[in-house]
Design a protein that fits this description.
Layout: E1 3-11, H1 14-25, E2 29-35, E3 40-47, E4 50-57, H2 63-71, E5 74-81, H3 85-94, E6 105-107, E7 111-116, E8 126-131
Parallel strand pairs: 1-4, 5-8
Antiparallel strand pairs: 1-5, 2-3, 3-4, 6-7, 7-8
Length: about 130
């Protein structure tokens, strides 16, 4: 794993939360995106080398909707940049981690993604991210 790619924050209203984080981080949202297969709308902010991803459910059955219903708004996941997501997934499986999918899938911000089950990582949902070339 190379670095923290971003911190994902579950929010009820991405426009309201976006305004809060723009003021807090003294920056603007540089990208929004619908990730329909995950049932979310995302907004990205950058401050220095760090990125924050705001996630709002657009589907009541999405993982973000369920997360907010159970825990309220807040930090949802920490994402790590990797060079080879398939190799990293295999390494983690060999180390005994439980992955939430067998193959990487397209995610927001032109990334392939895979999540590590929070029960495998002391209660923290971990996302692996690999930039899609091309």
């Amino acid at each position: 794993m190379n670095k923290v790619e971003h911190i994902g924050i579950a929010v009820s209203d991405i426009r309201i939360a976006g305004g809060v984080y723009e003021k807090l981080l003294n920056t603007t949202i540089y990208k929004t995106e619908l990730v329909e297969q995950e049932g979310v709308e995302t907004a990205f902010l950058k401050t220095g080398p760090n990125k924050v991803e705001l996630l709002q459910a657009i589907d009541d059955n999405s993982s973000i909707a369920k997360f907010i219903a159970k825990r309220g708004e807040g930090i949802h996941h920490i994402a790590f940049d990797v060079d080879d997501i398939v190799a990293e997934m295999e390494r983690l499986k060999q180390e005994g981690f439980v992955l939430l999918s067998d193959k990487p899938k397209p995610g927001a911000d032109n990334k392939l993604v895979c999540f590590v089950h929070p029960k495998s990582a002391n209660g923290v949902l971990i996302e692996l991210c690999q930039s899609i070339v091309g």
